[in-house]
């Protein structure tokens, strides 16, 4: 009698224990990436959406892409303020007049025959030989006259060329043009003028003078006369 009374109570307890067991969450397989019997990961459910961590990740990537795009964008270019056209034309004409006057002076200095020194001069194709000879002279004034005179002959090139020829602006272009002109002058001296000879050191000193003139004054004058684009 007692056993019959206890049996329904035991059955009721087992059923309530089974009912109280927690059910697995529906989105656990998608988050944990559980594998099935075949060993392959099960596909995520359609209703699953990324959490806060995924959204923050995507926002960080989008911000990084925006920063890269803005960093690689071409910098804007602005133009320097140039003189009005009449003033610019007047400045170019004045510079051209000075260039012509300088060419006349250069021709008189370098292309004038000197029969008295015909037996003393000789061509120099080795850079530095004539320069050492200038510096070895007993009087300092003679050395300064030789070296300084050749340097001064190149200074007007560095000042006037960027103003007369806007396309020739730039340090390398000015130096190349000066060296070319002075090479032609030296060739003419050695081939056509009595008492003159080709000297490569004179070309080097003339080009040095053009460099000094461009750095001190030529670059500023050319920027004041002609407009020049520059990056902001």
Q: Would you mind describing this structure in some detail?
A:
This protein is mostly helical. It has a domain of 155 residues. Helix content is 65%, strand content 3%. A two-stranded antiparallel ribbon has the order 1-2. The longest helix is centred in the middle third of the chain and has 26 residues. It starts with a helix and ends with a strand. The N terminus is likely disordered. Pfam families: VanZ. Keywords: Membrane, Transmembrane, Transmembrane helix. InterPro entries: Teicoplanin_resist-assoc, VanZ-like.
Element layout with pairings:
Blueprint: H1 2-20, H2 28-32, H3 52-72, E1 77-79, H4 85-110, H5 129-135, H6 140-164, H7 171-192, H8 200-225, E2 229-231
Antiparallel strand pairs: 1-2
Helix pairs in contact: 4-6, 6-8, 7-8
Quick structural overview:
Helices cover 65% and strands 3% of the residues.
- Counting DSSP E segments of at least 2 residues, the number of strands comes to 2
Model regions low in confidence, pLDDT < 50 over at least 5 residues: 1-6, 9-14, 16-20, 27-41, 43-47, 72-76
Classify the secondary structure makeup into a structural class.
mainly alpha
Helix count equals: 8
Largest sheet: 2 strands, antiparallel
Order of helices and strands: HHHEHHHHHE
Please report which band the strand proportion falls in: under 5%, 5-15%, 15-25%, 25-35%, 35-45% or over 45%: under 5%
What is the overall silhouette? elongated
**End-to-end gap:** 103 Å
Residues in helix, %:
55-70%
User: Radius of gyration, rounded?
Assistant: 44 Å
pLDDT averaged over residues: 75
- Strand sequence of the main sheet, in spatial order? 1-2
């Amino acid at each position: 009698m007692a056993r019959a009374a206890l049996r329904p109570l035991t059955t009721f307890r087992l059923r309530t224990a089974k009912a109280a067991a927690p059910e697995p969450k529906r989105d656990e397989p998608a988050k944990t990436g559980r594998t099935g019997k075949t060993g392959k990961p099960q596909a995520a459910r359609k209703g699953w959406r990324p959490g806060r961590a995924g959204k923050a990740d995507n926002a960080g990537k989008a911000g990084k892409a925006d920063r890269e795009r803005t960093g690689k964008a071409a910098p804007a270019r602005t133009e320097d303020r140039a003189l009005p056209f009449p003033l610019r034309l007047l400045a170019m004409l004045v510079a051209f007049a000075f260039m012509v006057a300088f060419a006349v002076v250069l021709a008189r200095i370098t292309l004038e025959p000197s029969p008295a020194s015909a037996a003393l001069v000789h061509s120099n194709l080795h850079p530095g030989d004539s320069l050492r000879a200038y510096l070895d002279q007993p009087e300092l004034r003679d050395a300064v006259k030789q070296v300084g005179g050749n340097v001064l002959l190149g200074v007007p090139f560095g000042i006037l060329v960027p103003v007369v020829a806007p396309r020739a602006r730039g340090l390398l272009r000015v130096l190349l043009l000066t060296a070319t002109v002075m090479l032609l002058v030296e060739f003419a001296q050695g081939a056509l003028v009595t008492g003159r000879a080709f000297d490569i050191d004179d070309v080097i000193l003339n080009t040095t003078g053009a460099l000094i003139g461009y750095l001190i004054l030529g670059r500023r004058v050319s920027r004041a006369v002609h407009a020049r684009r520059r990056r902001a």
